[in-house]
Structure formats: structure tokens, C-alpha cells
Hints:
mainly alpha; 7 helices
Amino acid sequence: MENKKREPRPSKPFPCPKKQLGLPVEAAVAPFEPAMVFGLTPSLYVKAGSFIFGAYGVQMLLVPSNMMTDHFEAHICAPATKYTDFWIRGQSVSIATVVYCMTKLPEDVAAKALLGLSAGIAVLYPFNAKFGYLSSLEVKYPMHYVPEALMLGLTVAGVLALK
């Protein structure tokens, strides 16, 4: 086989200006910036969601009976008891842990996790109570609009923040 000299490759149509200046190629690569929809970044979404879930966690810790009395008709369903207070108060620790972890994870990972959490809670709690596809409950309006709006809003915001 004959040794032929390779012709040089044509240069790229848009040469890297930093490379031409003698700077390292790594300096030419811009860090990943998430796209913003309506100014909503994954970081802002995680902060807002952490605040909302944190407020729920504090309420569960300090006034657990309100989770029953604010959202369900007491004369139709069982009233809040020391047993419902017990498990609702205990759930506040789970929420506090989730909020803490959300603030320590990389923002893109935390935003995906928060989206899953928000959508899951929306399906299993306020919308299940409203539409009764898993449970038949008598919810109290207008108060029950609050978790419906918050969980729907957090879910939609998560989708937009991750675009």
C-alpha cells in the first residue's frame, strides 16, 4: 500500500475564539444554564416547593388536627382524634427531611424529585379526595381548594421549570 499524505481537514465554520487566543478549550465551554419559562428556574421552583411543603410540615407538627378539621366535614367523617394527631405529627419529620434534602441536592435533581413528589401527592391526596377514585371522602370547601391549587400549581410549575 502506498503511503499518502493526508490532507488537512477543513477548518470548522465557526472557530473557537478562546482557542485562537491560546486559552484552554475547557474555558470555551459555557456551563449548562437551564432554560427559563416565565422566569421559572429549577432553583426557584425548589425554593418555592420547599417553602410550601415546609409550611405543611410545620402545620402537621404544631396543629395536626387542622389537617382533618380544615379539609373534611366533621359531622360526616370521623373527627380528628389523638390517633390521627399521632400519625399526622409523625409525618412532619418525613416532610422536614424531604425539604432538607431538596435544598442540598443539585438543583436539576431536586427539581425532578420535587415534581414527582408534587404530582404524587396531588394524585393521592387532594384530587383523590375530590374525585374519589381511590377513596370516597366528603371534603370541606372552600378550604379544600387550597391543597388542590397548591399541588396543581407545583406540578405545572415543575414541568415548566424543567423545560
